[in-house]
Amino acid sequence: MKQIINDVLDFLLPRQCVMCGNRLTIKEKSICTSCYIHLPFTNYHTIEHSPLEKMFWEQFPIERATSFFHYDGKEARHIIHSMKYDNRPEVGYNLSKIYAKELQEYDFFKDIDCIIPVPLHWKRRMKRHYNQSLYIAKGISKTTGIPIYNNVVKRVTNNPSQTNMNSSLERRKNVSGIFQLKDKHKISNKHILLVDDVTTTGATITSCAKELSKASNTKISVLTLALGGKTPISASQEECIDPFVYGVPLME
Question: Which end of the chain is more exposed for a tag (fewer CB within 10 A), N or C?
């Protein structure tokens, strides 16, 4: 019955690919297979000490770090824009499920105890009606079974958007002291996966990670959906994640 209802709804209200706008098949989620295979994947999960991980080395103690795709080109940018500003948080949910499935094959989630999405300030969350990073965390949790700790850290400052800030110094100043740890006992002795939508200079993640590190004996890993800036691509397009290796990942 559920499948019949979904088929009828898909016929009456056809869903469109977030990248190309073409109609999705019944089993495709948010992005069509053709667009998916052309995403500029980082493949950082296949590299020991990836460039993203190295970017955080001098900022805070980090276990590992990865990002799904590079935030370059209008298509990849449109994914993030739709997720954040077009009321399509399900895009982050669906793509993070795909990526989490791939990461499981590389033991990326080994010994991780909890997932913490980078929080939004309450004013921005009220305006947007959701935290896109929470939806990314939900997709990872759905695939891995790792619990989400959503109220451990709070964003206490509604700092300006960093979209138009180009220098790393400017971005670091903008996010300095904007987070506050609320429940350090809950994450003591835990390995945390800190999740965000995009990282460019890593300033926001670093600020949040430093606040989380105030809890005793914590370990932190990082996962973002997209990677901006000039961090080099680690693999050629031909080496990107094959959507047919584990079955078409766009299927539910």
Answer: N
